[in-house]
Specification:
11% strand, repeat, two-stranded parallel sheet, LRRNT, 3 helices, leucine-rich repeat, 13-stranded parallel sheet
Length: 378
């Protein structure tokens, strides 16, 4: 019995060992992903170089106007029955001036892409009084385009003109040519413009050599002349004595001739801000002008207050190099004048002195002299 039990135990142990030895081990899971073969990179074909955009290909499309009851109204313009004499073509992305109807008196073409002004569109437009061509890309105005038109106002500022247009009509009253590239005023450009009251040549490239002594002599009715923001070194010659407003800011002027303003009986406003004026370049009584009301000499190189007439009401001397102010010296009248006699009191109301080498308080003699002074900035 014991022998049978032992035989059975030995057999069971043999079978168990056989099962263990014949069992195949499980493969372990890899800790890293197997490397995959990289595909060979295929070079992309080179894109063709894009040419630089050239005008006028970059212009936006023309904007057509609303339907109109007028059969002669250009498609790219607006013709209102409330204003039958006005042709509104502004802000339409126009490249060329359309044919102008004969009934037109007021023509608005500002804020477009017009590059040339030719005579053809104006053949039947014989009654135009007002033309606004501001903020275009005009580089040429054909000669005599407006010669036979009774034009009063011509606005061509913010364009690319290099020369003052020729053949302007004698009827013209206002000519605005600011913010162009004008560097030449041909002889006789203004010879027929005796009715002109306003000439704006602001922000161009005019120098002393571009303006002769007779450039402005025929402008007998001129009231305002704006030559600011050019490259002038001298005061312009031959300015008509009818002038009321003279603007010469942002030039390079360093001298005003002693007798420059002789004969000016109406001159009321003179602006010479942002120039290179010093005491040496200003004769003692150069601004003793009876008609002068507003004198601006800001942003120059002055070290003292220039003398001025008792009729002056506004004086701008800020941002110079003034270190002191003596009311007794600059007072146009005697400090002992009767204060009840208003005709003997200076009319100065506004005085600006900030940006100098001055500090409060305001000298007493200044207050005693300028008794109409309402505001002083120091």
């Amino acid at each position: 019995m014991k022998a049978g039990t032992g035989l059975f135990s030995a057999l069971a142990l043999f079978l168990l060992l056989g099962a263990v030895l014949t069992q195949t081990p499980r493969p372990k899971k890899p800790t890293r992903r197997p490397a995959t073969a990289r595909r060979p990179s295929v070079p992309k074909p080179a894109e063709p170089a894009q040419p630089e955009p050239q005008e006028p290909t970059d212009f936006p499309p023309v904007i057509l106007g609303p339907p109109s009851m007028y059969v002669d109204c250009p498609l790219e313009c607006s013709c209102s029955p409330s204003y039958p004499n006005a042709l509104n073509c502004e802000n339409r992305n126009i490249r060329n001036i359309p044919v102008i109807p004969p009934r037109t008196r007021y023509l608005y073409l500002q804020n477009n892409y017009i590059s040339e002004v030719t005579a053809e569109p104006f053949i039947n437009a014989t009654e135009i009084r007002w033309v606004n061509l501001a903020n275009n890309r005009i580089h040429r105005i054909d000669k005599n385009v407006f010669e036979k038109i009774p034009l009063l106002y011509l606005y061509v500022q913010r364009n690319n003109l290099k020369v003052v247009p020729a053949g302007l009509p004698a009827s013209l009253e206002q000519l605005r040519l600011g913010r162009n590239r004008i560097s030449k005023i041909p002889a006789g450009s203004f010879s027929r413009l005796g009715n002109l009251t306003l000439l704006d040549l602001y922000h161009n490239q005019l120098s002393d050599s571009d303006m002769g002594k007779n450039t402005f002599k025929d402008l007998k009715g001129l009231v305002q002349l704006n030559l600011a923001h050019n490259i002038l070194k001298k005061m312009p010659a031959g300015i008509p004595s009818s002038l009321i407003q003279l603007f010469l800011d942002k030039n390079r002027i360093d001298d005003v001739p002693k007798d420059y303003f002789d004969g000016f009986t109406h001159l009321a406003f003179v602006r010479l801000n942002y120039n290179q004026l010093s005491d040496k370049g200003l004769p003692k009584t150069v601004f003793n002008i009876t008609s002068l009301l507003d004198l601006q000499l800001s942003h120059n190189q002055l070290t003292s207050v220039p003398l001025f007439n008792g009729h002056l009401e506004h004086l701008h001397l800020d941002h110079n190099s003034i270190e002191s102010i003596n009311g007794t010296q600059i007072c146009p009248y005697s400090l002992e004048a009767d204060p009840s006699d208003h005709s003997m009191l200076p009319r100065l109301r506004y005085l600006r002195l900030d940006g100098n080498h001055l500090s409060p308080p305001i000298p007493l003699d200044v207050i005693m002299c300028f008794r109409h002074l309402h505001s002083i900035v120091i």
